[in-house]
Amino acid sequence: MQEPERPKTGPYALELDGGTYWWCACGRSRNQPFCDGSHQGTDIEPVELELAAAQKVWLCGCKRSGDKPMCDGAHKQLI
To answer: Which residue in 45, 65, 49 sits closest to 17, CA to CA?
Structure first.
């Protein structure tokens, strides 16, 4: 399996509306932290995130979280 790129060391703190989002797992998207299709040609797929209502979320920026797409602090081990 390919190793994802690391576009950011810490999380993306966002206020999102309810709905479906696709989190970039490969780290290549120019629309971080969301997928723009840049994973094509890799074995890495985006992760679906469904929110029932508007809320603040912390999405993983280092792409190493064990709780994808949410940040679990894995970036602290990369510094």
So the answer is: 49
CA distance 74 to 72: 6
Report the C-alpha gap between 32 and 28 in whole angstroms. 8
Query: Does the pLDDT of residue 79 top 80, yes or no?
Result: no
User: pLDDT (tens digit, 9 = 90+) per residue, 3-29?
Assistant: 999 999 999 999 999 999 999 999 999
Listing DSSP states for 47-76 in one string gives EEEEESS-EEEEE-SSS--TTTTB--SGGG
- Measured over the CA atoms of residue 7, residue 49, residue 15 and residue 65, the dihedral's sign is negative
